[in-house]
Please model this.
Amino acid sequence: VLLQAISAGRLLDGDSWARDAHRTVAGLLVCASVIGGLVALVRLREDAVGRRFGLILAALGVALVVQYGLGAAAADGKRTLWLHIPLGVVLFGLTMRLNVLAGREVRA
Ligand code: HEM
Model:
């Protein structure tokens, strides 16, 4: 998610590779969080922290799908960048929350 902010800066600076990097990483992020969230929800469902981790990761996946749509719409000339950029900040906050939860002990 942090890399997305960096590639976004480069694409606004006019580097053509940055647009491809931003779009490719966006797709990878969506897949990794949706699949990771579902796997965590199934594998860690017995543990309260594990369940919360899975739920937040799955919610991140859904928010990333929305983020992808807003970014693609902006690239298409629609006025969605004002939502796309603050949602990127919210998504970064969610990843930090996940990082804290991932460090907690799971009683499986
Ligand atoms: C974290 C901060 C982020 C910032 C500042 C940012 C900024 C931008 C900017 C400036 C554009 C170009 C819009 C245009 O051409 O008018 C864009 C496009 C896009 N963004 Fe982001 N973005 C961020 C995060 C993300 C994330 C996390 C995703 C993941 C889903 C994402 C997915 C996309 C997509 C799919 C496009 C369209 C690319 C294309 O087809 O050319 N962005 N973003």
